[in-house]
Amino acid sequence: MNERRALVILHGKQAQNEEVRAAILAKREQGWELAVRTTWEGGDAQRITKEAIDAGYPTVVAGGGDGTLRDVAEALVACGGKASLVLLPLGTANDFAHAADVPLTPAEALELLETPPTPIDVGDMDGHQFLNMATGGFGSRVTASTSEDLKKVLGAGAYLITGLTRFSELRSSFGRFRGPDFCWEGEFLALGIGNGRTAGGGQALCPNALVNDGVFDLCIVPAAQDVVGTFRTLLNGGIHGLDTVSVTARLPWIEIEAPEGLDLNLDGEPHQRTEMHFKVLAGVLRVHLPTTSPLINPSALPTESATTAL
Q1: Residue 158 domain-assigned (yes or no)
Q2: Are residues 18 and 65 in the same domain?
Q3: How far apart are CA 298 and CA 291, in angstroms?
Q4: How far is Cα 62 from Cα 65, in angstroms, rounded to an integer?
Q5: Same domain for 246 and 295
Q6: Which 8-state DSSP code applies to residue 11?
Q7: pTM of the complete model
Q8: Is 102 helix (H, G, I), strand (E, B) or coil?
Q9: Looking at 29, 33, 111, 269, which residue is catalytic?
Q10: Most CB atoms closer than 10 Å: which of 168, 198, 206, 239?
């Protein structure tokens, strides 16, 4: 079987992207057999991924934003990780790709086809998988309500503009959090459960997260008396601002109760729940990442003998 073959799943909006077309043609000239399928509506990415696995493709390329990446990753996990994943970042935020140091130009991104895949973790919330981060509270509402037109014009900055225009809606949520040797409850403004590090167009909610350590990085931003001031600290201070106002932990599973309901966003997929259970699915997805990716803990990589045995 020819291992230099992959199926590219391209978000429908990128079907006429000439830079992508040129990058794919260049890899074909280098001996790669690359088939291309485009999505048209919700569910297409998962369906095409399953078809690729049934057809024996050893690698699937996810060409789109964080939502496309989530859909393909979820389908690969559901199929037992039979194929590896390459990221072709073509979205607005590309939060996971940014944090992983995946190149944002198509030609450079497709060069990762030449690198060995790394087993990484995937997050799971009650059967829904996410690769990058689950966010909750005001930030997730901003992400969900940011228009596609605004993102086209302003890119990742659209999330900030939407947040600023919705300051009048800023309110806290109440939640009870439990994990191994961890318990916290109270009012909070924002929540990040990170496999990756950033969300919402580059906000580093979990700046030290790793994708192959078997745990989530949990970040809770409690609601202070000066709610607007706390939010401004987050916007202006970045990572350093976050350190001054957040509760953090590193946990393999997390249970949350939110009696009044909690708005959640799993890599672009909105949910609303009163009770939820998060767990790490350790090492279930093989992804082609740069060998120097800051999301990878080198000491947790499988040894050469173990990789050969797999």
Answers
A1: yes
A2: yes
A3: 9
A4: 9
A5: no
A6: -
A7: 0.83
A8: coil
A9: 269
A10: 206
Task: Say how far apart CA 216 and CA 124 lie, in whole Å.
Answer: 11
Specify the 3-state DSSP secondary structure of 157.
helix
Query: In this structure, are 196 and 156 located in the same domain?
Result: yes
**CA atoms of 238 and 130, how far apart (whole Å):** 24
Q: In the chain, how many H helices and how many E strands?
A: 10, 13
User: Does residue 156 sit within a domain?
Assistant: yes
- What phi and psi, each to the nearest 5 degrees, are found at residue 202? 115, 5
Domain count, the chain: 2
Please indicate, yes or no, if residue 153 is contained in any of the structural domains. yes
3-class DSSP assignment, residue 237:
helix
Question: Residues near 249 by Cβ (< 8 Å), separated by ≥ 6?
Answer: 179, 182, 217, 218
Q: Give me the residue label for tokens 């040797």.
A: 181
Per-residue pLDDT tens for 112-160? 999 999 999 999 999 999 999 999 876 544 444 444 443 343 333 333 4
Q: Do both 145 and 274 map to the same domain? A: yes
Coil vs helix vs strand at 6: strand
Find the farthest-apart pair of alpha carbons in the chain and give their distance in angstroms, rounded.
63
Q: Which residue has the tokens 């790793």?
A: 210
Distance CA 63, CA 12 (A): 10
Residue closest to 8 by CA, chosen among 65, 72, 61? 61
Regarding whether 98 and 138 lie in a shared domain, the answer is no
State yes or no: is 269 an active-site residue: yes
Query: pLDDT digits over 234-281, tens only?
Result: 555 444 445 656 899 999 999 999 999 998 989 988 899 999 999 999
